[in-house]
């Protein structure tokens, strides 16, 4: 397996939350359909809502109501959706298949791992322990720093909290903003095909890696570490 020449052995793996570590779309979609039901509207099909999950309120309200930020009525729906979602965040949300094994493999290899999400703290803080991720080395939410992704500030804050140079961190996500933020932070970037990539082809994002499963990520990490160590031994 050939790797970019700039790669060094990773010391920390940082993850987006929604669509990367956790399949939270069922509860996100349920909350927006509560809003539709309250307004006498039929639920929006889950197949339409799921691909927008990584975009949060912007994606859900856009798909369910055809409104975008700045449109009349959008802000009221956004605030109402926040309340409905907070009331039932972890009913059907689960970790993606293979994530537990991935995190165990990362720890076994002596690496740190953490979460960097655009989800506000009011959701992240209660949700993370409920879905089995309380052991994260750090959790940086969308309002932890003055900027959210695609700005690099949240990723740099995560690296600071872990005490690891960003150049030795990888960032894994399922949205273009994740890859843009990781690149801007000087991290190795991974686009995960198992998330909510929607209709956009992740191969256009310019990520260092594009992988299909959490098991593929663990195998790639182990292969990179072995390759770097072999090169250093020469």
Describe the model.
The protein is of the alpha/beta class and 234 residues long. It has two domains: 12-23 and 93-233, HAD superfamily/HAD-like (Rossmann fold, 3-Layer(aba) Sandwich), CATH 3.40.50; 25-87. The protein is built from nine helices and eight strands. The protein has helices spanning 25-38, 46-49, 56-65, 74-87, 99-108, 121-130, 153-162, 176-184, 214-233, and strands spanning 12-15, 22-23, 94-95, 112-116, 139-140, 169-173, 188-192, 209-211. It has a six-stranded parallel beta sheet with strand order 5-4-1-6-7-8, sandwiched between helices. It has a two-stranded antiparallel sheet with strand order 2-3. Helix 1 (25-38) crosses helix 4 (74-87) and helix 5 packs parallel to helix 9. The radius of gyration is 18 Å and the shape is elongated.
Comma- or semicolon-separated keywords:
single chain, 234 residues, alpha/beta, Rossmann fold, 2 domains, six-stranded parallel beta sheet, 9 helices, 8 strands, 43% helix
Proportion of residues in helical segments = 40-55%
> Mind summarizing the main beta sheet?
6 strands, parallel
Strand order of the largest sheet: 5-4-1-6-7-8
Shape verdict: elongated
Q: Assign the structural class, choosing from mainly alpha, mainly beta, alpha/beta, alpha+beta, or little secondary structure.
A: alpha/beta
- CATH architectural category of the largest domain: 3-Layer(aba) Sandwich
Question: The CATH topology of the largest domain is what?
Answer: Rossmann fold
**Rg for CA atoms:** 18 Å
The end-to-end distance, rounded to whole angstroms, is 18 Å
């Amino acid at each position: 397996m050939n790797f970019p020449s700039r790669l060094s052995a990773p010391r920390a793996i940082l993850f987006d939350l929604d669509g990367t570590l956790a399949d939270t779309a069922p509860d996100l979609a349920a909350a927006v359909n509560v809003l539709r039901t309250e307004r006498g509207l039929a639920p929006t099909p889950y197949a339409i809502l799921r691909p927008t999950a990584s975009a949060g309120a912007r994606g859900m309200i856009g798909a369910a109501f055809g409104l975008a930020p700045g449109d009349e009525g959008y802000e009221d729906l956004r605030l109402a959706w926040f309340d409905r979602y907070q009331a039932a965040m972890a009913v059907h949300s689960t970790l993606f298949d293979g994530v537990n094994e991935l995190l165990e493999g990362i720890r076994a290899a002596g690496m740190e791992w953490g979460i960097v999400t655009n989800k506000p703290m009011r959701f992240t803080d209660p949700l993370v322990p409920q879905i089995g991720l309380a052991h994260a080395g750090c959790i940086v939410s969308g309002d932890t720093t003055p900027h959210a992704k695609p700005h690099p500030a949240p990723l740099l804050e995560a690296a600071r909290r872990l005490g690891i140079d960003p150049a030795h961190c990888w960032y894994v996500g399922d949205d273009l903003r994740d890859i843009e933020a990781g690149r801007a932070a000087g991290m190795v970037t991974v686009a995960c095909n198992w998330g909510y990539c929607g209709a956009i082809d992740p191969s256009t994002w310019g990520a260092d890696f594009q992988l299909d499963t959490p098991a593929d990520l663990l195998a790639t990490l182990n292969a990179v570490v072995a390759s770097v160590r072999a090169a250093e031994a020469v």
